[in-house]
Specification:
This protein has 9 helices and 20 strands. The protein is of the alpha/beta class. It has 2 domains: 3-208, Rossmann fold (3-Layer(aba) Sandwich), CATH 3.40.50; 216-331, Rossmann fold (3-Layer(aba) Sandwich).
């Protein structure tokens, strides 16, 4: 039996074509998608297309849009075998990470993809990204979807969504997953790493979380950062959590004023999570003296999570967990976003 795949268009470069009389871009009518990618007709699946009410540039994405995407998946969940979300590249890793936490007990693939060039461009990467994403979303074994998690497909690789990050604005190889292998690679054949795929508990209904806390901040340290800058962020009204991007394996200044600010924030009930600025590797608090003090103050290690996963996991957990439950949940893997120690 052929699979049924739902394409959800949110906006982005992949949905643009060049005007025949000018260099400007305009949105494609996705109802006529097959006119632009006739190869989709060769796939053994039925494709339906819906769009956000107002397609947006991904730079404008926010929690409202994540809830809208999750809602569309929830409404159509029982009718389709898989979902492909067409999305702008700039914030795709944030969206894929957020949806991974919002969609609990997911038993079907949700694959984010996009392109660096418009779908109507002669050298576009949109066709391969879209065709292979649909093919991956349609995979079934014994009539059961093979992939059961939120992923991101780009330039011949399928990544776990909450392990991905954008690394290049100019090249087709725009995304990477430094701390976790690709779930699949596409060449002459698609090589799927079944041993890496998530296997959620069966017979559990999809649970869609639509409450996300936006009372969070992302603070990147740099040499010479001023006390007033950090203080102003930590003193933000209603602030509940901060993702602190530190150096190397989780190191930060040992200046008394800095540690005093961190301690004060934690005593005031603000969760502070330590994530590395490095593109790969992990936080190992206590490995150096420059992180040992933060560990003793109660700063939470993000281990090998990406910044995108850390901030969206925080937004999710702040709406469902408090106190020790938050700390334990953050340090444990919920959707494969963190490696087991």
């Amino acid at each position: 039996m052929s699979s049924k795949v739902l394409l959800i268009y949110t906006g982005g470069t992949i949905g643009m074509v060049k005007s025949p009389n000018a260099a400007s871009l305009y949105p494609i009518d996705f109802n006529n998608l097959l006119d632009n990618i006739s190869e989709l007709e060769l796939l053994n699946c039925k494709i339906q297309i819906i769009s956000l009410e107002t397609p947006i540039d991904s730079s404008n994405i926010n929690t409202f849009h994540w809830v809208e995407i999750a809602g569309l998946i929830e409404e159509n969940y029982k009718y389709y075998d898989g979902f492909v979300v067409l999305h702008g590249t700039d914030t795709m890793s944030y969206s894929a990470s957020a949806l991974s936490f919002m969609l609990e007990n997911l038993q079907k693939p949700v694959i984010f993809t996009g392109s660096q060039l418009p779908i109507g461009d002669l050298r576009t990467d949109a066709k391969e990204n879209l065709i292979t994403s649909v093919q991956l979303a349609s995979l079934k074994k014994d009539e059961i979807p093979v992939i059961k998690e939120v992923c991101l497909y780009f330039e011949y690789k399928l990544f776990r969504g909450n392990r991905s990050t954008k690394i290049n604005a100019d090249h087709f190889k725009a995304f990477a997953s430094k701390n976790f292998p690709p779930l699949a690679t596409s060449g002459v054949r698609i090589n799927l790493r079944s041993d890496l795929l998530l296997n959620p508990a069966v017979n559990s209904d999809l649970l869609v979380h639509k409450d996300l806390s936006t009372d969070v901040a992302l603070l990147k340290l740099f040499p010479g950062i001023q006390q007033t800058i950090i203080s102003s962020i930590l003193d933000t009204e209603n602030l509940k959590g901060v993702v602190l991007e530190t150096y190397g394996s989780g190191n930060a200044p040992t200046a008394k004023w800095f540690l005093d600010l961190i301690e004060k924030a934690i005593l005031n009930g603000i969760y502070i999570v330590n994530v590395t600025q490095c593109s790969g590797g992990k936080v190992e608090m206590g490995h150096y003296a420059t992180s040992a003090k933060m560990q003793s103050l109660g700063v939470i290690s993000a281990s090998d999570m990406t910044t995108e996963a850390a901030i969206t996991k925080m937004m999710f957990l702040l709406s469902v967990r408090t106190g020790l439950d938050f700390k334990l949940a953050f340090k444990n893997s919920l959707r494969g976003e963190i490696s087991k120690n």
